[in-house]
Design a protein that fits this description.
Helix content: over 70%
Strand content: under 5%
Structural class: mainly alpha
Number of strands: 2
Oligomer: single chain
Distance between the termini: 34 Å
């Protein structure tokens, strides 16, 4: 069975999704979804064990060898993203039942779990496929299921947010499809490893150059890189509470993985940076996104919206690491991709617990919640420290690598700017902590109590993982460093 793991890790959630849709009992559907999700975590861990140290797995679907057949290819980078999707997705789905009780009627729960599992399965598919067209197919499946998840929000503005995301996502998907069509037109193949061999021969071809431009714009829309982030703040703000945690942890991170895979593996470093100069585009946009989004976050009065704008800023850190074009920068990008997914999922889960009790996400309504919900607020404070980048938290590790990458390139001013941007994170996280611990609770919130243990445990798992990965970096920075050296061709 171990040889079939690349197929099993996808089929677990992909097959569980339609089964959930046929189950009318929401509790039974939830149990099935949780079992399928956690089994996919076990499969992901087993796959990481197989590729640890730089190995690769090439699995031929249906026994057809590539490039004629569809290939599933797993290396350390894809295995790390696979763990990100399955582990964080499983932690979120574990608390979904409690979250959905107040969000929608019970007879609709099974359909919601179906959509959630379908989104999770498509993200897994994007991560492991070795076929460029299948990347597009799975991207679209994940997008369609994401639109449905967002539209389920209780606020009527959730429909507007979902529609806005649909328009932007459709434009991005169209650009990606055009790019893949151009690549196929020139090379006659869709296998990503085969494309990596054939595309350098056509580096001066205008069609290949156009495909690169279409692809970068399309995937940047999916990632929500500034200034193509228009859909993200409202989508995160008005989506159902726990769902936002899943989307913030996985959707944009998997799209970022696709960008890394195509820029460095498919098109190649020489073409992407020395001929197309993608770094000259990403560098200023990333810096602008970090500062503008952080500044907007500082002035937000709604915590959910504040964290949404924070995500735009943090995505700027990740794209900035790519623009550094050195090992430390790419290490920072991959490390922060994992760390931020973990931290932001935990923050949104803690916030979901607070909203569950207070029925509000406005900062002023969180006054005194540190005393009435000490465990939830404590987890939020730990995760907030990770977002800021306090030493001994996971966020510090990735930002340390990013500052080192700037200094390695001789960009001292940029390194100083990165430190200043972290202080801006202190400002917007600090004002939440200040209200939660140092402001008196309003009279109507005197009876607020802690949430159920089933919600607290995932919140604290995320918080403790934030501390753990701030100390032991073998799975994050260790893997990211080896991946960065391989993608940049260092030491080869």
């Amino acid at each position: 069975m171990i040889y079939q793991l690349p197929a099993i890790v996808l089929l677990l959630t992909l097959l569980a999704a339609p089964i959930c849709s046929m189950i009318r009992n929401g509790d039974i559907a939830w149990k099935l979804a949780v079992i399928a999700a956690w089994l996919s975590v076990a499969a992901s861990m087993a796959l990481m064990h197989q590729v640890w140290g730089g190995n690769e797995i090439s699995y031929h679907m249906g026994g057809w060898p590539p490039p004629w057949g569809i290939e599933v290819r797993i290396d350390e980078l894809s295995a790390l993203v696979l763990i990100l999707v399955t582990l964080f997705g499983s932690l979120v789905i574990t608390v979904l039942r409690e979250s959905l009780r107040t969000a929608m009627r019970s007879h609709r729960h099974s359909l919601y779990y179906t959509t959630f599992l379908l989104c999770m399965a498509s993200l897994i598919g994007i991560t492991i496929t070795g076929d460029a067209f299948n990347v597009f197919v799975f991207l679209e499946i994940s997008s369609l299921s994401t639109y449905a998840l967002i539209a389920r929000g209780r606020d009527r503005r959730a429909l507007t947010a979902a529609f806005r995301y649909l328009i932007m996502g459709t434009i991005g998907a169209t650009f990606i499809l055009i790019a893949i069509g151009f690549m196929y037109m020139v090379t006659g193949t869709l296998n990503m490893a085969d494309l990596a061999v054939r595309l350098p021969e056509h580096a001066d071809n205008r069609v290949v150059q156009a495909s690169f431009a279409f692809f970068i714009v399309g995937i940047a829309l999916k990632i929500a890189i500034f200034p193509l982030h228009y859909w993200l703040p409202n989508a995160y703000t008005y989506a159902p509470k726990a769902t936002t945690a899943f989307l913030a942890a996985t959707a944009t991170k998997v799209s970022l993985y696709v960008m890394i895979r195509f820029i460095f593996d498919v098109y190649g470093v020489e073409f992407s940076f020395k001929q197309m100069h993608i770094d000259a585009l990403l560098l200023p946009l990333s810096v602008a996104g970090i500062f503008i989004a952080s500044l907007i976050a500082v002035f937000q009065s709604d915590v959910k919206r504040l964290l949404a704008w924070s995500s735009v800023a943090q995505l700027g850190y990740m794209s900035l690491g790519i623009a550094m074009v050195n090992v430390a920068g790419l290490t920072a990008t991959v490390t922060h991709m994992f760390n931020h997914a973990m931290i932001k999922a935990g923050l949104f889960l803690c916030l979901a617990a607070m909203i569950y009790r207070l029925n509000s996400s406005h900062i002023k309504d969180l006054a005194g919640i540190g005393r009435s919900m000490p465990l939830t607020t404590g987890a939020f404070a730990v995760l907030g420290a990770g977002l800021v980048g306090i030493p001994l938290t996971a966020g510090f590790v990735s930002k340390w690598y990013l500052i080192n990458a700037a200094l390695e390139n001789g960009w001292v001013i940029l390194a100083v700017m990165l430190i200043i941007s972290s202080l801006m994170a202190v400002a917007y996280i600090g004002k939440i902590i200040d209200v939660a611990y140092f402001k008196p609770a309003p009279a109507q919130h005197k009876d607020v109590k802690e949430v159920a243990t089933s919600i607290l445990i995932p919140c604290w798992i995320f918080a403790l993982l934030t501390i753990y990965f701030g100390i032991d970096t073998r799975l994050t920075a260790g893997v990211a460093g080896r991946v960065a050296e391989t993608l940049l061709g260092v030491g080869l």
